[in-house]
User: What shape does this take?
Amino acid sequence: MLNRIIFDTRIMGGRACIRGMRITASLIINLIANGMTTKEILQEYPDLEIEDVSQALQYAAFLANEEIYPLTVGNRSF
Assistant: This one.
C-alpha cells in the first residue's frame, strides 16, 4: 500500500508527491538513479523518512510493471 504517495492538484500540479510535501516521487527516483544513497537523500532532505524513499521506489516499480497488448483488428495484429 502506498500511503505516503499523494496526488493533489494543489501541490506540484497533481504529480506524485511524498506525504503532501513539494517533494515528488520522481525526484527521489532520479536521485537514486544518479547514484545518491538513501542516507545521502535523507541528509539532503531532512523532512523525508526512510519509508518515503522506499515507497517512491515501490511506486516506480508499480509504474514499470506495464504490459503491452497488441492491437487486434479482425484477424490482424498491429
